[in-house]
Amino acid sequence: xxxxxxxxxxxxxxxxxxxxxxxxxxxxxxxxxxxxxxxxxxxxxxxxxxxxxxxxxxxxxxxxxxxxxxxxxxxxxxxxxxxxxxxxxxxxxxxxxxxxxxxxxxxxxxxxxxxxxxxxxxxxxxxxxxxxxxxxxxxxxxxxxxxxxxxxxxxxxxxxxxxxxxxxxxxxxxxxxxxxxxxxxxxxxxxxxxxxxxxxxxxxxxxxxxxxxxxx
Length: 216
Known about the structure:
The chain is an alpha/beta fold and 216 residues long. It has helices spanning 9-18, 24-37, 54-58, 73-81, 120-124, 128-133, 153-161, 164-172, 174-192; strands spanning 44-48, 65-70, 88-92, 107-110, 139-152, 200-212. Strands 3-2-1-4 form a four-stranded parallel β-sheet. Strand 2, helix 4 and strand 3 (88-92) form a beta-alpha-beta unit. Helix 7 packs antiparallel against helix 9.
């Protein structure tokens, strides 16, 4: 069932500004798997829960068409504001109600993050529950994909402000939410010992990739 976490335009705009596309390591794993299971040409990719289109646009150079689908109208509007490849389009819709003919889609792509606290265990368990729930016999998983990037403290602050649980906190208690994000910023600055203008951090993340191929 879809979670409606990005209904407000302001929140969707923050998501567009501070969220990153899927890393190249993930794309390489997915494309290698697709090549082994199907081979070229790669005609159609569908990005489920595409948000504001960061990862959707990242698939454009590998497929003839890429369609991003998200339940949030605000997210789709933000995605359409970005000048992108002509072979990318966006639709508002539900993952449970896709209107594609059987066998017409080469890749169903989905990124997953612990937006809601009661679901964080899914990520902590390295997607084991999701992997076990996949009924296709041909499936693989890749663990502990590490990547890093340089980011300013102000970007890290904006990233946290774009998180749905921060936005929920902000709605319930704006003053405490603002104070918490400011304390976090000051803690980062004190740790690295620099002023805000030149404060740069090395941000490290770990991902897990689940791959499955529908039987013909």
